[in-house]
């Protein structure tokens, strides 16, 4: 592996891409420490320490690399861009125009990317407006010093504009990594934010009542889940596909046998993020209500991370979103039509509609395994660390799956480029 890494840096083109990616990651981390206009970073740190760990902002704060609870210009992180991308992808099912653009190839993809950028800025304005408006009240309620001293419409507007501009800059940085660097830009920035929080989280565990014993348990669970994620993420159900011989011009093409890979976890970590986001809504709504009300107390006692209701709904939502998102990303009818167009067929299955039904049957059975895998990996660390009194944060199943998944994909991308240059690569 070390020889392959040295070979990657000896290749001028690949070395330039790797250094460019690292430079963007450094810029992203530096931006998380730049406070928004009129924000007192001293007051913010005191409020964050007084507020403690927990609450519905933890997932967003994890994705932003800790920038959200620092009220920095990168407070929203990459989440608006991720949300916009998912929304545009889901709208393909609802809006025929979007599905038509998706099928048009590069020009249609460019148009969808443009819509994603506009939606990202819109979500950035909306989220930053809500976040800044509530910074001195609900989010940091009970703090001695306000994060934005003497807040007025001018100061709030300037902070909103700065955070929205930060969202646009992060979106641009992510696209730069995708175009000129190594790997997917969004994934790399999320990976950077989670890794940046890991040492601090582990130090907090050591300083807590859990002590070194708790830190050892955390690392053991982390390594065990990493092994499971690496194994499952590379598992596939391979469906054999044969292509009939065709005459194109004066050449005979086709006649080959290949396979159609169906991953165990085609939905990746998206269902877990969806489920976590939906379960944040009741907590967020309850924070605006009267704390002595019955419905607020019910939410706080049953829909928190320590409640049985929370874990049950969490598991059901992960299952539901896994099947829903898989059905959108893996369009069996489109795959069957493409196979028929190029003369491909599954042995023993007729082309066209029967092929689509067979692929749907196989994908649903595989998705059951993927849904169980996602639920177990997401719930086991949460339940274990909650019982031990350890704050989950970076050590949750969601963050571990993101870290391992992004790491595997990035290594595969580097390995593919090394193999193009006749090097052995990372994976042997």
Tell me what you see in this structure.
With 428 residues, the protein is mainly alpha-helical. It folds into two domains: 206 residues, SecY subunit domain (Preprotein translocase SecY subunit); 181 residues, Orthogonal Bundle (Preprotein translocase SecY subunit). It contains 17 helices and five strands. The strands form two sheets. A three-stranded antiparallel beta sheet has the order 4-1-5. A hairpin with a 2-residue loop joins strand 2 and strand 3. Helix 12 runs antiparallel to helix 13. The longest helix has 36 residues. It is globular, with a radius of gyration of 24 Å. The N and C termini lie close together (9 Å). About 1% of the residues have low confidence. InterPro entries: SecY (IPR026593), SecY/SEC61-alpha (IPR002208), SecY_CS (IPR030659), SecY_dom_sf (IPR023201). It is a multi-pass membrane protein. Its main location: membrane. One of its GO terms (cellular component) is plasma membrane. Belongs to the SecY/SEC61-alpha family.
């Amino acid at each position: 592996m070390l020889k392959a890494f040295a070979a990657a840096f000896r290749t001028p083109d690949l070395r330039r891409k790797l250094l460019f990616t690292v430079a963007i990651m450094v810029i992203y981390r530096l931006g998380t420490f730049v406070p928004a206009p009129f924000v007192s970073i001293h007051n913010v740190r005191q409020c964050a320490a007084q507020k403690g760990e927990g609450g519905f902002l933890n997932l967003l704060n994890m994705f932003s690399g800790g920038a959200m609870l620092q009220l920095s210009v990168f407070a929203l992180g990459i989440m608006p861009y991720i949300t916009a991308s998912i929304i545009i992808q889901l709208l393909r099912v609802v809006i025929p125009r979007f599905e038509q653009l998706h099928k048009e190839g590069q020009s249609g993809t460019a148009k969808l990317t443009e819509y994603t950028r506009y939606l990202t800025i819109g979500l950035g304005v909306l989220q930053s407006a809500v976040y800044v408006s509530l910074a001195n009240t609900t989010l940091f309620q009970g703090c001695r010093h306000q994060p934005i001293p003497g807040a007025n419409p001018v100061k709030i507007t300037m902070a909103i504009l700065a955070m929205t501009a930060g969202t646009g800059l992060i979106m641009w940085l992510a696209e730069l990594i995708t175009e000129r660097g190594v790997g997917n830009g969004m994934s790399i920035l999320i990976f950077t934010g989670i890794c940046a929080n890991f040492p601090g989280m582990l130090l907090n565990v050591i300083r807590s009542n859990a002590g070194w014993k708790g830190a050892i348990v955390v690392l053991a669970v982390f390594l065990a889940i990493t092994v499971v994620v690496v194994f499952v993420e590379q598992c596939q159900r391979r469906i054999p596909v044969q292509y009939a011989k065709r005459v194109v011009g004066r050449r005979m093409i086709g006649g080959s046998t290949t396979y159609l890979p169906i991953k165990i976890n085609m939905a990746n970590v998206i269902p877990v993020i969806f489920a976590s986001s939906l379960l944040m809504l009741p907590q967020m709504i309850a924070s605006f209500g009267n704390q002595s009300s019955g419905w607020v107390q019910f939410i706080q006692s049953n829909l928190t991370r320590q409640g049985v209701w929370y874990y049950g709904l969490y598991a059901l939502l992960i299952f539901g979103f896994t099947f829903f998102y898989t059905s959108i990303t893996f369009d069996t009818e489109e795959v069957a039509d493409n196979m028929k167009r190029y003369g491909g067929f599954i042995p023993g299955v007729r082309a066209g509609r029967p092929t689509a039904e067979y692929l749907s049957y196989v994908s649903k059975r595989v998705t059951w395994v993927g849904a169980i895998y996602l639920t177990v990996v997401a719930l086991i660390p949460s339940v274990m660390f909650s019982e031990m009194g350890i704050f989950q944060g970076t050590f949750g199943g969601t963050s571990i799956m993101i870290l391992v998944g992004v790491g595997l994909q990035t290594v595969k991308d580097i390995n593919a480029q090394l193999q193009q240059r006749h090097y052995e690569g990372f994976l042997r």
